[in-house]
Amino acid sequence: MTSTKRTNGGTPLVEMRDMCIAFGGVHAVDHVSVDLYPGEVVGLLGHNGAGKSTLIKMLSGAYQADSGEILINGEKADIQNPRDARSYNIETIYQTLALADNLDAASNLFLGRELVTPLGFVDEDAMEAESRKIMARLNPNFQKFAEPVSALSGGQRQSVAIARAVYFDARILIMDEPTAALGPHETQMVSELIQQLKAEGIGIFLISHDIHDVLELCDRASVMKNGKLVGTVDVDDVTDDDLLSMIILGKKPGEAAA
Amino acid sequence: MTHSDTDQTRAPARRNFVQQLDLDLRLLGMIGAFAILCIGFDLLTGGRFLTPRNIFNLTIQTVSVAIMATGMVFVIVTRNIDLSVGALLATCSAVMAMTQTQWLPNIFGLELGNPLIPWITIAFGLFVGALIGSFHGWLVGYLTIPAFIVTLGGLLVWRNVGWYLTSGKTIGPLDPTFMKFGGINGTLGETGSWILGLIAVAAALYALYSARRNKQKHGFTVKPLWAEGVLAGLTAAVILGFVATLNAYEIPTRKLKRMFEARGEVMPEGFTQAYGIPISVLVLIFVAIAMTVLARRTRLGRYIFATGGNPDAAELSGINTRWLTVKIFALMGTLCALSAVVASARLANHSNDIGTLDELRVIAAAVIGGTALSGGVGTIYGAILGALIMQSLQSGMAMVGVDAPLQNIVVGAVLVLAVLIDIQYRKRAGAAK
Q1: What does the pLDDT read at residue A33?
Q2: Nearest-CA distance from A190 to chain B in Å?
Q3: Shortest CB distance from B8 goes to which of A121, A144, A185?
Q4: Which parts of chain B register pLDDT below 70?
Q5: How far apart are CA B76 and CA B53, in angstroms?
Q6: Diameter of chain B measured on Cα atoms
Q7: What pLDDT, on the 0 to 100 scale, is given for residue A4?
Q8: A209 and chain B in contact, CB less than 8 A
Q9: How far, in Å, CA of B429 to CA of A79, rounded?
């Protein structure tokens, strides 16, 4: 189970070592280690409440780990809040999309990182122009730049959330159930985007419920159960049944056979 | 998805006259309601409502509540509430009254009438307002006590801190320069008002022009030139009309005579002089512009609206929402202090009951102006227009001779009705998209 990328050497883009976090006595994430290489997609699988989202929120700065360490390009990283994560070029597309519904697409895209004029005022026109450029690349049909995002369809909202992550030169991208609310057409769009970003050398953590998504899009899959890591496998080495038994029974394929 | 998108690209062809002007329909509705209200009262009072004198009085009565309402917009937009603004106004007013009449003269030895007194007083008052506001914000943001509770407590605390500071006495007379912020005691005069009006027109036209140029620079579609022309003409007409109205209110001859006598001169025969724009209204205009720029063109304003729309998203975007809460309440406190300057200067003294029930007027003004209590939505001009509508309703009914209890019944009903209409309007507007 050696990934080609790992045998090629080089340090991993992200290494999360021995991460722990507990909420009121419940060990949501319990001594979990995962890693991610440039141009690689790692799937995170598991039941609801297995700890996938919690693990990844420690990387995106939404939660602070109780213990464990995060290495970015082999160097220890200190991520206390979402702003820190962004400074390491870690971008996150949340399951809830994390959009301010009352603001338009451009305002959401640049939220927290607004473009300003030399006088320090927010430059709305420049932000809209930039948004039009990136949306032309991601979703050429997108035209609703003046409306608040609450007026957009699920797929359009998803495009805004994706555009926000992609625009700022993400090196590490976290996607939490990116296709959960989408129709087939938009799911296809997201798959194509993942392939494209991969080719650009971006590392992607993909949280998903859908085993087939993971088999199709990911290079490796890490499976979690009850806050613990069951194991990490190359998707080429396993069948969907193998993955299912990891998720449900918490057993690695080798153990199941033994 | 593709279907709706193609619909969208075809839509501009169907735009009507109003849409071409790119005006806010909600704003037009409010202006319409306000106009009907004014004309109605004018008819009922036999033409006494829309006189320069009454309009002058209406504007100076509105200022205090309107200033606070602009701050309340930010508070409500971030899903908070401030019930303590009237009480905070009273404390700031008490602090400033004591500063100018007791503390500065007695402790620091500045003689009464010293030109520094009003300015030190105002600076100190604003500082106290900001400090109390920040304290509220800290309790709400960092200690996560609901704003409703913090400011309900604040209502009791600050109302009575004000009382305690003055031992319940009415403090006056206040410094003559300080009283110029009250309205009729301090106006720009005819020439000054016209000059200011022309500057305002020039600034508005320049703003329209530079907005258009900026849009063209990025290659966006802009309004047709005739629409810009209509908009520019309307803006200029409103500004100059406002100045002309206030300039039409002349100082009564008897008062003028006394002013001349005070200077030891004799008034020439047939001499007239108008009041012009009151300084307090100027303060409100300044606050309105500053708050609008803050809301629309600064990061702070962005973060306020984003936090109101989705607090979690704002937090995940790296916005420090706790610190933001402190800033918003500090701003609210500062505006309460500014209102305290205007309110106490208008009354020419500080009294214990100053600002009583203002919290309700301020919240009502913001809500009538379209600020949604669910957060994320609200405008500064709406809140000011809301304050103006409330004040017109109240003084209009008083002029017509409606009984006092009925006045409050009507105001209460109007508040609820305004919110109902707003909800219906939003539903329609949402459905149209």
Answers
A1: 94
A2: 15
A3: A144
A4: 1-23, 429-433
A5: 34
A6: 81
A7: 45
A8: no
A9: 42
Residue A153, φ and ψ in degrees, nearest 5 = -80, 170
pLDDT score, position B236: 93
Domain that holds residue A157: 100-168
Burial of B59 (0-12, 13-18, 19+ CB in 10 A): buried
- B347: nearest Cα among B64, B59, B49, B129: B64
Helix axes B52-77, B358-368, angle to 10 degrees: 80
User: Of A137, A168, A199, which residue constitutes the final position of a domain?
Assistant: A168
Identify whether residues A134 and A187 lie together within a single domain: no
Residues A109 and A76 both lie in one domain: no
Contact check, Cβ <8 Å, B302/A86 = no
Domain assignment present for A1: no
Q: Is A2 domain-assigned? A: no
CATH of residue A78's domain is 3.40.50.300
Candidates B8, B306, B319; nearest CB to A143? B8
Q: A181, A229, A186: which is closest to A42 by C-alpha?
A: A229
Does A82 reach chain B within 8 Å, measured CB to CB?
yes
In a domain, A38, yes or no: yes
- Rounded Cα distance between B39 and B335, Å, is 32
Residues A112, A125 share a domain = yes
- Tokens standing for residue B61: 């009565």
Q: Which of A112, A129, A155 sits opposite B318 (nearest CB)?
A: A112
Query: Is there a single domain that holds both residue A40 and residue A133?
Result: no
Residues of B in contact with A92 (CB under 8 A): 316
Q: How far is A62 from chain B (nearest CA, A)?
A: 6
Same-domain status, A52 and A179: yes
Contacts of residue A121 in chain B, CB cutoff 8 Å? 293, 297-298
Do A175 and A138 fall into the same domain?
no
How many structural domains are present in chain A? 2
Stated pTM of the model: 0.89
* Domain assignment of residue A254, yes or no: no
Nearest CB to B5; choose among A98, A126, A143? A143
Mean pLDDT by 10 residues, chain A (258 residues): 50 92 90 94 90 92 92 92 91 89 93 90 91 86 87 86 88 87 80 88 90 89 92 90 87 63
Burial of A146 (0-12, 13-18, 19+ CB in 10 A): exposed
pLDDT of residue B7: 39
Domains present along chain B, CATH in parentheses = 24-185+286-432 (1.10.3470), 187-277 (no CATH)
Domain boundary among A147, A168, A189: A168
- Tokens 């106009």 locate to B35
Measure CA of the first residue to CA of the last residue in chain B; give whole Å: 14
